[in-house]
């Protein structure tokens, strides 16, 4: 495979890593974890999930799948590009 393929995957991997981190940080805490130990669980939760939260979940899963595909693609590229000894 050509070298530009690896560079494209690396750039896409960096972008999706940053985007995935930001999307995860945007999620509202569900309580019961470390955040509730420090007073984060005091807020009242709504009965259902809003449309924005559902879309945020979908975007997070989509970016996670793209991130995973980049990891697998780089692994396959390294397997074919680097000669085994």
Describe the 3D structure.
The protein is mainly alpha-helical and 85 residues long. 69% of the residues lie in helices and 0% in strands. It is built from 3 helices and no strands. It has helices at 3-26, 34-37, 51-81. Helix 1 packs antiparallel against helix 3 (51-81). The longest helix has 31 residues, at 51-81. It starts with a helix and ends with a helix. 5% of the residues are buried.
Ordered list of secondary-structure elements with their pairings:
Blueprint: H1 3-26, H2 34-37, H3 51-81
Notable features of this structure?
single chain; 85 residues; mainly alpha; 3 helices; 69% helix
Short description:
The chain is an all-alpha fold and 85 residues long.
Q: Whole-Å distance between the termini? A: 19 Å
Unreliable runs, pLDDT <50, ≥5 residues? none
Integer-rounded radius of gyration: 19 Å
| Count of runs of 4 or more consecutive helical residues | 3
Tell me the strand percentage band.
under 5%
Shape label: elongated
């Amino acid at each position: 495979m050509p070298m530009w393929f690896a560079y494209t995957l690396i750039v896409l991997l960096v972008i999706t890593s940053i985007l995935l981190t930001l999307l995860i940080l945007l999620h509202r805490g569900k309580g019961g974890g470390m955040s509730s130990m420090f007073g984060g669980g005091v807020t009242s939760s709504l009965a259902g999930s809003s449309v924005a939260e559902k879309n945020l979940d979908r975007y997070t899963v989509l970016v996670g799948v793209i991130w995973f595909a980049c990891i697998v693609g780089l692994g396959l590229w390294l397997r074919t590009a680097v000669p085994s000894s």
